[in-house]
Design goal:
The protein has helices at 4-17, 41-48, 54-67, 73-79, 85-97, 102-111, 115-128, 134-140, 146-158, 165-171, 177-190, 196-202, 208-221, 227-233, 239-251, 258-264, 270-283, 289-299, 303-320. It is mainly alpha-helical. It folds into 3 domains: 46-159, Leucine-rich Repeat Variant (Alpha Horseshoe), CATH 1.25.10.10; 165-252, Leucine-rich Repeat Variant, CATH 1.25.10; 258-323, Alpha Horseshoe (Leucine-rich Repeat Variant). α12 (196-202) runs antiparallel to α13 (208-221), α15 packs parallel to α17 (270-283) and α17 (270-283) runs parallel beside α19.
């Protein structure tokens, strides 16, 4: 039999493990501090726009552009004066997305010392499309930074600025490929016949991108005097130059590019098949063009290309006034197998007796 002394440690352990009495209950844990209410996303971004860190301010301006809440416009206008060029550029972008601040953005295009701000200003003015900013964009064509000249040319093209034609023709002679591309692309959008002589020359440029824009510009200008230049481009070493030459000729009703379009319908590339269908749809005939489109449609697996081919077929039929044959009448229903019942006929009305 164990002694009392030997049992003391066991008693101590049991007492220690016994739950405390109700009166000795542990004090409740202090309540967690109440969480501060979250600000709406716009208000949170507006608060960060005042942060000491310029990267935080830049991110806040970008976020306000994504949110596109007009409530942010006054703060973004103030951010145009920020000491950081990156913050100013982000604010310009956000205001462009909000379709606001064209006067202030045009001023930055002309006066801001940072090229990234001037580039963003020229881009944002595309969204705004305000004729009052045309003169600032024309000055942008003379900017020392190539990116500003490029963006200004693109925006003037989108605005169809006739005042920009002369300086863009000068840019078309630039030794910089990107500048010539920007000029040719803008002239295509403006589609002025005054640009036709220079675009004819640019159709033979060493750069395929310039040639492509020039050929498209000749088609957009609608001057049939360019037909010979366009026909020469059907043998260009760049497939997209050939495609655009055929499309431009098609806009004149000239079918010289039909053979190219027929060949493109068999291309392994969906984009080229789509472009081929566009060419055939615009100048193809009932004898060759329509059967080629029908055959291409029957075996096409790509849904987008199949839709384009079907659209080209509809265009060709409308142009040539081809009507689809009437649908055949539905076949009469056959009686079920093993059925001996005769087809049901409507009951005959009883004959009226003569008076």
């Amino acid at each position: 039999m164990r002694s009392f002394t030997a049992l003391l440690p066991l008693v101590f352990l049991c007492v220690s493990a016994t739950p405390a009495a109700a009166g000795d209950a542990a004090a409740p844990a202090p309540e967690a501090a109440t969480a501060a209410p979250q600000l709406p996303p716009v208000d949170a971004a507006l608060a960060r726009l005042k942060d000491k860190d310029h990267m935080a301010r830049r991110q806040a301006a970008e976020e306000l552009g994504r949110l596109r809440d007009p409530k942010a416009i006054p703060a973004l206008m103030e951010a145009l004066k920020d000491e950081s060029g990156w913050v100013r550029a982000a604010a310009v972008d956000a205001l462009g997305l909000l379709r606001s601040g064209s006067t202030q953005i045009a001023e930055l295009l002309v006066k801001d010392p940072e090229p990234q701000v001037r580039v963003q200003a020229a881009i944002s003015l595309t969204y705004l499309s305000d004729p009052a900013t045309e003169d600032a964009l024309l000055k942008g064509l003379e900017d020392s930074a190539e990116g500003v000249r490029f963006a200004s040319a693109r925006t003037l093209g989108n605005m169809r600025s006739q005042k920009a034609v002369a300086p863009l023709l000068t840019m078309l002679e630039s030794p910089e490929v990107s500048t010539r591309q920007a000029a040719a692309s803008a002239l295509e959008r403006i589609a002025s016949r005054d640009s036709v002589p220079a675009l004819k020359k640019a159709a033979g440029d060493a750069d395929p991108g310039v040639r492509q824009f020039a050929v498209r510009g000749l088609g957009a200008a609608g001057d049939r005097s360019a037909a010979d230049v366009l026909k020469a481009r059907l043998a260009d070493g760049d497939v997209q130059v050939r495609v655009q030459a055929a499309i431009a000729l098609g806009s004149f009703g000239d079918a010289s590019g039909l053979g190219l379009g027929m060949d493109l319908l068999k291309s392994p590339e969906p984009l080229l098949r789509q472009q081929g269908s566009r060419i055939v749809g615009s100048v193809g005939d009932e004898k060759a063009g329509l059967p080629a489109l029908n055959a291409a449609f029957a075996k096409e697996q790509d849904p987008g290309t199949r839709q384009m081919i079907d659209l080209a077929r509809a265009q060709l039929k409308a142009r040539l006034q081809i009507k689809d044959p009437p649908a055949p009448p539905p076949a009469p229903e056959k009686p079920a197998a093993g059925s001996t019942s005769e087809p049901k006929t409507a009951p005959k009305a009883p004959k009226k007796k003569a008076p």
